[in-house]
Amino acid sequence: MIKYLGSKRRLVGAILRVVEALPDVRTVVDLFSGTARVGHALKRRGYRVRANDHNAYAATLARCYVQADREDVQADAERLIRELNALPGRPGFFTETYCERARFFHPRNGARIDAIRAAIAAKGLEPELEAVLLVALMEAADRVDSTTGVQMAYLKRWAPRALRPLELRLPEVLPRGPHGRCEAHECDALVAAARLSGDVVYLDPPYNQHSYLGNYHVWETLVRWDQPPVYGVACKRIDCRTRRSAFNSRTGCLDALRAVVAAAQASTLIVSFNDEGYVSRAAMEALLATRGTVLTLAHEYRRYVGAQIGIYNPRGEKVGRVSHLRNTEFLYVVTDAAAAARLAERLPQAERRPASASAACGVVTGSGA
Question: Is pTM, for the whole model, over 0.90?
Answer without folding.
Answer: no
